[in-house]
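Attaching the record inline, Q. Sequence:
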Amino acid sequence: DTELQHVSRSLFLLQLGERVESACLVWRKQNAGIIDELVNVYKIYADFFTAPKRKLEHFREMWLRALQMNAESGVSLDPEWPKWSNQICMMVGQELYRILYDHLTFNTRALKPQDPENPHLRQDAPVLFEVTSDDPGAAHYEIRVHPILLKWYKASGRHASLVFNPTELPMLCPPLPWIDTKQGGYLLSSSDATRFIRKTTYFPGADAAADDDLDFDISMIPRVLDSL
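Structure, as predicted:
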């Protein structure tokens, strides 16, 4: 039934766990003082970036210089914390899903005329339910939304605004230049794509283009793309 949106339960559990992992990572950075340190380094970088006359030409060189100027603080901006395995993400997602599945309900009589003798009459139903896959070769469950709730949503004509992940939206401040495969782009969020860099060692006074992986003139690239 195409009217009932559905998603694989295992995929949903994995995505829930990954979101919790991302939130925990931000929480750990906050408690370790990494976010405060990042603010200090970014202020130096922003001063380089917005200077009327730039002493440093390339954004990557600006960021590396800002890191160097703040290196004596002793706080690493890239701690080696182990990444959660898929099994852990699934376990965490399972617990969250169980809470949603058991407690997320709605009143199916909400749009029906009230009974004068019993105005508070309710008939609660779960928002989510599960069905088995139609594929005989793969026995797995799919999560679907209650058809009555979907019917109300479509009849209301008030579709909610699209909501995007922060990593899929334009930034309001200059992005961090890529200096390795882990650091670059967004300030806190990670990215699934990175630009390959052969060399990441910065030497003061050296040509910034020497640390780049490009095999052609770097000055021919629009600066807005230098952070990619």
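The chain has one domain: 6-220. The helical segments are 9-31, 34-50, 59-69, 86-103, 147-156.

More tomorrow.
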